[in-house]
Specification:
This protein has eleven helices and 14 strands. Helix 3 packs across helix 4, helix 3 runs parallel beside helix 5 and helix 5 runs parallel beside helix 6. The protein has two domains: 235 residues, P-loop containing nucleotide triphosphate hydrolases (Rossmann fold, 3-Layer(aba) Sandwich), CATH 3.40.50; 89 residues, Alpha-Beta Plaits (2-Layer Sandwich). The strands form three sheets. A six-stranded mixed β-sheet has the order 6-7-8-3-9-10, sandwiched between helices. It has 338 residues and is an alpha/beta fold.
């Protein structure tokens, strides 16, 4: 990871409206995103994530703060200068935003036409990109003749036409089925590895973050709550906003109907091949109830959370914690009331 950010956001805020009806969409956002990484921004609906990504290329003008792109403060640029910078920032959307009256080839050519690329050269570049995204045989097809996944591949080719340094993906897989989503994520990851383009993924789905992102920012109620490597945030989420997204589709106590003291254990790839729980039961001489368990693949490693109901005997609890400490297992005690 390079030392200098490709995008740096400083004290950025965005308010819609004024007076009593004003709505704060973003509040004092600070982020650094580095060249070549796949950076995820995740939050629930209404958290401000789509507004944030649109502020990155100034489709939305921030109310306060700065956006530094490749060393330049783009919030201070003229409209003409900003149009030039936007050629280095590609964007794909949930709804594809293709021109229905244009073929796949002409849709890819569109951004090149705007950039002033000669028609012959633009078509050559567009054909190369359609081949890159696996649609060389669809250049004459119109959007109405393409599946959702094929439309998104055309949109990706169009976004890459001007050789951008950054690719912004705003809920790019939300309208797709799981199989198509997987293929699009694999394509984005492959493009990142082959071209070095920096990718910023906006999503409300943790599974998207887990599959391809290097780092993630959790946004909640217009503010950035947590930033870190994906595996670190999954293993030890520090904020309630992160826990809501990681443990379940809702609050962590909605996974089961339980009451009492529990230990939440976190496993990473170095521990999932060991019989930790079986050995703990043998060593401590007390069975435990597993209230919840979940595993995920992150960066090719298996990570998992497990919730154990603690016995009432304090001496046994002490032994269990000592054993987990000796095995270097991360855990946190939690209490629930059914």
């Amino acid at each position: 990871m390079a030392n200098n950010p490709i995008i740096k956001i400083e004290s950025l805020s965005k308010t819609f409206g004024s007076g009593e009806t004003a709505v704060t969409a973003l509040d004092d956002i600070n982020l650094s995103i580095y060249p070549g990484e796949i950076f995820g921004i995740i939050g629930l609906s209404g958290a401000g994530k789509s507004t944030l990504v649109r502020c990155m290329n100034l489709l939305e003008r921030p109310t306060a703060g700065r956006v530094i792109f490749d060393g330049s403060d783009i919030t201070s640029l003229s409209d003409k200068e900003l149009r030039k910078v936007r050629q280095s920032i590609g964007m794909i959307f949930q709804s594809f935003n293709l021109l229905m009256q244009r073929t796949a080839l002409d849709n890819v050519c569109f951004s090149l036409e705007i950039a002033g690329v000669p028609k012959k050269e633009a078509k050559k570049r567009a054909r190369e990109l359609l081949e890159t995204v696996g649609l060389a045989d669809k250049e004459k097809a119109y959007p109405s003749q393409l599946s959702g996944g094929q439309k998104q591949r055309v949109a990706i080719a169009r976004a890459l036409a001007t050789n951008p340094k950054v690719l912004l993906c705003d809920e790019a897989t939300s309208a797709l089925d799981p199989t198509t989503t997987q293929s699009i994520l694999e394509l984005i990851k492959e493009l990142n590895q082959k071209t070095g383009v920096t990718v910023i993924i906006i999503t409300h789905e943790m599974k998207v973050i887990e599959q391809i992102c290097h780092r993630v920012a959790i946004i909640d109620k217009s503010r950035i709550e947590e930033v870190g490597m994906v595996q670190d945030v999954f293993r030890q989420p520090k904020t309630q906003a992160a826990k809501k997204l990681i443990f379940t589709n809702g609050d962590s106590n909605e996974e089961f109907a339980g009451k009492g003291r529990y230990l939440r254990l976190v496993f990473d790839g170095s521990q999932t091949d060991r019989p930790v729980i079986a050995n703990m039961v043998l060593k401590c001489g007390e069975p435990v109830s597993i209230a919840f368990a979940k595993t995920k693949m992150i960066s090719g490693k298996m990570y998992g959370h497990m919730l154990l109901e603690l016995p009432e005997n304090p001496e046994i609890v002490k032994k269990i914690k000592a054993y987990l400490d000796s095995e270097d297992i991360t855990y946190e005690e939690e209490r629930y009331d059914a």
